[in-house]
Each structure stands twice: as structure tokens, then as C-alpha cells.
Amino acid sequence: MNAPVLSVTSLVKRFGHLTAVDDVSFELMPGASLGIVGESGSGKTTTARILAGLEQPTSGTVTLDGEIVGGQSRRARLRQARLLQMIFQDPYGSFDPRRTVAESIAEPLRLHAPGPAAAHRARVGELLDQVGLSARAGESLPRELSGGQRQRAAIARALGIAPRVLVLDEAVAALDVSIQAQILTLLDELRRDTGISYVFVSHDLAVVRYITDTAVVMRHGRIVERGETEQILRSPRHPYTRLLLDSIPSPGWDLDRVARDRRALDAL
Ligand SMILES: Nc1ncnc2c1ncn2[C@@H]1O[C@H](COP(=O)(O)OP(=O)(O)OP(=O)(O)O)[C@@H](O)[C@H]1O
């Protein structure tokens, strides 16, 4: 039996009186894809940020490849970044606007895998190719690329150091639907080819259905339902999951019923 590449145990994050993440636990096996779904404010992003070390938990642990992470030493932070990389909704802010995309993709290589510049250049070429970007796109500045191309570049940069886990926070939410499909297909191929694991944070159940095997549903910081994604979406057990599903516009959509169910759930 394989060991999980990522385990999260009893994670809690408080901001003052607000408990944003409340006793969250889950495991991710090598090559698996786990969805974290829930409405705005349910604690998804805070959970993702803790995984990436961008936020410290109030309590609980994150274990990556058998070792608890969260240490603040340079060595500990480098190890966490080497094993787990994060992709944001719009990576624009995380690219240096004055550097070419290829230079930005090379940066983590220089930090984590020091070597001759020519080797880095060759690796950047491979990475651009792997995510479907031309060498010309690599020579562009971030603002010269489309949203979809920028997301491809962000994926290339994250993959360069061969992390075990990619945490994607609403990674396709800002893209047109046809571009979303291209990025999701790319992510699917990359997972098949490299055996990388995903934690895929999204409010979009259709996207989660496509890209994940299992999922957890978060509400008010807690996990209210978990299991195989297909099973959860086909026969949700928790009223909140049913409400999320009913909130998707579809033929015969009953907005009054959704509003009624929400009032009933909020009163619980
Ligand atoms: N730095 C912070 N300081 C104070 N409160 C915060 C902070 N970050 C998040 N919160 C609060 O924690 C709760 C969970 O937020 P979080 O962003 O994790 O939810 P989410 O499910 O990702 O929602 P969204 O999709 O809107 O980001 C919210 O009530 C939010 O206002």
C-alpha cells in the first residue's frame, strides 16, 4: 500500500474570533486528485494557503512526503516549496512584469536545482513545450500573453522543480469556458504523464467533476461531506451539498426552492 504524499490532520485556522478552518483532515495519495469545494467564505483558500506555507495554522499538521511541514527555517521552506507548488486564479501578480516568461520559469530552477545556465535554458524549453507554449511566448512579457497562456506559464513554472503536489486555487475560474477546457485537459495529461497529485480548490462543481477523483465539501470551515467526486455529485448526502448542486442553473431550475432550502439550512 502506498503512503499518502500529503496528509492534513485536524487543521484549524482562526482569524481573531472567526474560525476560517475548523478541524479539517484529509489525505492525498500519489497521482490522485482531490477537490475542495464550497461557497465563497467556506475556508477553501485558507486551507490551500496553509498547505503552501503562505499561512500558519492555529493548530493541526500538514505532512508532506512523510515529514511535517511548517518550519520557518530556510531549509524547511525550501523543502515545502520543492514538494508542493501553488497555482492561483490569476498568476499575473506572481510574474515579474519586467521579466520574460522564460526567465520567470527559470527562477525556481535556479533556486532549487542550481546548475549551468544552458541546462536551465534547455529545461525551460522542455517545460514550455510540455504546457503547449511556443518559444516565442517564452520570450514575451507576462502582459503580452492571454489569460490562458499565462496560466500555462504558471503551470510550467510550478512543474519545473518536479513537485509532488500542485495546489490549484480557482485556477480556471477567470478563464473563458473554452480556455478552461484546454487548461483542464492539459492538467489531466500532466497528471497522467508525471504522476503528480492535485488539490483542486473550486466553487465550480462541473470543473471539480472533470478534474478530481475524490472531493471534500467545506462549509463554515468544516468538512461536511467527503468521498468519490462522482458519488457526491450524483447522490449528495449533506443538505449543503444538495444546495450547491441545486444552485447550478439548469433547465427547470427552481430559484425559489433554492432560496427556501438555503433559509432552512442556515436556520440549522
Ligand atoms: N487574512 C484574513 N484575515 C481575516 N479573515 C480572513 C483572512 N483570510 C480569510 N478570512 C476569512 O476566513 C473565511 C474563509 O475565507 P476563505 O478565503 O478561506 O474562503 P473561500 O472558501 O476560499 O472563499 P473565496 O472563494 O471567496 O476565497 C472568510 O470569512 C474570510 O473572510
TrEMBL record:
Keywords: ATP-binding, Nucleotide-binding, Transport
Domain of life: Bacteria
Residue span, ABC transporter domain: 6-245
Pfam families according to UniProt: ABC_tran, oligo_HPY
Xref: InterPro entries: AAA+_ATPase (IPR003593), ABC_transp_ATP-bind (IPR050319), ABC_transporter-like_ATP-bd (IPR003439), ABC_transporter-like_CS (IPR017871), Oligopep_ABC_C (IPR013563), P-loop_NTPase (IPR027417)
PANTHER family: D,D-DIPEPTIDE TRANSPORT ATP-BINDING PROTEIN DDPF-RELATED, TRANSPORT ATP-BINDING PROTEIN
Protein name: ABC transporter ATP-binding protein
Organism: Planobispora takensis
Taxonomic lineage from the root: Bacteria, Bacillati, Actinomycetota, Actinomycetes, Streptosporangiales
